[in-house]
Model the fold of this input.
Amino acid sequence: MALYSPYKGMRNTAEMTTREESTVDGADVMPSSLTELKPLVDEFLTKLKRIKQEQELLKADEKELYEEYKTKIDMKEMKAAMKVATIKEKVAHKDAFDNLLECIERDL
Done:
């Protein structure tokens, strides 16, 4: 007979994944002095800013791509088709999805 435990279902520290450990232990391993902490924060912010700048460049490239093709392809229809394709890609049971979609489309 098992004893009652208020910790039932909870994992002990030894079972935690690396990601969970870093989340739990982050404050414990962080430098306590401002002198040691400042360079880490600066490094983090520099890397984050670089990533944000790259995202902005990619967004500008995407906008240029749409501009380039807007006279060749109906972009409104293209975006709608891309949304449908993305949804279909995520569906686990494609046959059931297609059957449901066909029923819905008949009623619209």
About this structure: Residues 31-72 form one domain. The chain has two domains: 31-72, 73-108.
